[in-house]
Amino acid sequence: MTRGMVGWAGGSAGPDFFIYTHAAPATHWAHDHTIIGEIADSISWKTLDALHALPAATGGGGMTMLRTPVQLHVMKTPPWLQAK
């Protein structure tokens, strides 16, 4: 898994949706993660950078989680790019 890949983890308590944002490729996962997409536009990357700036803590399993949940709205095509 490389930076920007969108994953679906179903290994234990999942399924969980996540975006891999580490600079180095992930080499530590087994077979229970599926790539379902990829971050490809600069607007999405700006949003991810803003999320990285929020307070976070390392939790169970060594995963980094935001200290306070945020509300996200995911769409296939942003409204300003849709055909009219």
Overall description:
A hairpin with a 5-residue loop joins β4 (56-58) and β5. A 3-stranded antiparallel sheet has the order 2-1-3, with no helix packed on it. With 84 residues, it is an alpha+beta fold. Helices cover 13% and strands 25% of the residues. The chain is built from 1 helix and 5 strands, in the order βββαββ. The model has no long low-confidence stretch (mean pLDDT 81).
Distance between the termini: 36 Å
Largest sheet strand order: 2-1-3
Helix and strand element order:
EEEHEE
Q: What is Rg?
A: 14 Å
The helix content is 10-25%
Detail the poorly predicted runs: none
- By DSSP (H or I, 4+ residues per run), the number of helices equals 1
Oligomer: single chain
Question: Keywords, please?
Answer:
5 strands, 84 residues, alpha+beta, two-stranded antiparallel ribbon, 13% helix
Question: What's the arrangement of secondary structure elements?
Answer:
Blueprint (H helix, E strand, L loop, with lengths): L4 E5 L6 E4 L13 E6 L3 H11 L3 E3 L5 E3 L18
Antiparallel strand pairs: 1-2, 1-3, 4-5
Q: What is the structure about, briefly put?
A:
With 84 residues, the protein is α+β, with helices and mostly antiparallel strands. It has one helix spanning 42-52, and strands at 5-9, 16-19, 33-38, 56-58, 64-66.
